[in-house]
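Supplementary Note 3. Input sequence used for the single-chain structure prediction.
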Amino acid sequence: MTSRDDLPEVTILCEDIDQERFITEYLICRGLEEHKIKDFGNPKGRVIENNNALILKHYPGLIKSHRKRKHRNLAVVVMIDADEDSLDDRMRSLNIALDETAGNLNRDPRLPNEKVAIFVPARNIETWFYYINNNMEGQECNENTDYKDKKMSAKERIELAKSAAQKLAREICPQGVDRITLPSLRYACKELQRLQF
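The predicted structure, written as discrete structure tokens, is reproduced below.
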């Protein structure tokens, strides 16, 4: 078991406040203290034409900065919605942004022991919220349907993100990753191993 002092500082690069709150709450449930979680400076409600482009723009610089400070116990969590692309296509775009040659060869340019986890909710983070909150009831969920409820207030969305993270950390993950039937969420849970805590 890792002591709290041994846990890394985590920087989150994501598209919006729903994703940021989901990741933060999940990390807290996993034992990380909130002061060790840093927000890269995500949009937080600002209107951005293309949040994916924002992630692709900042990802290489964040990783280069992370690599320069490898003597410190640091980690990075990146979240980018797949939207209408596949998880593989979105991962490839991140790989190309970080290292064009490796990315074009479908190689992951992250270093083997690099504490960088990438989450790609397909279709979007609301798909995960729907799956997590309806998982125990056996509700059907797929990664093509848009489950975003445009009538929810910002406060309701933040609460939904936090409750989904808590349920994932406390109820679903302890049952084992292989029991998760939503492919992009199962992939993200495997990515968590890269954080090494």
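Residues 16 and 46 are 9 Å apart (CA to CA). The radius of gyration is 16 Å.
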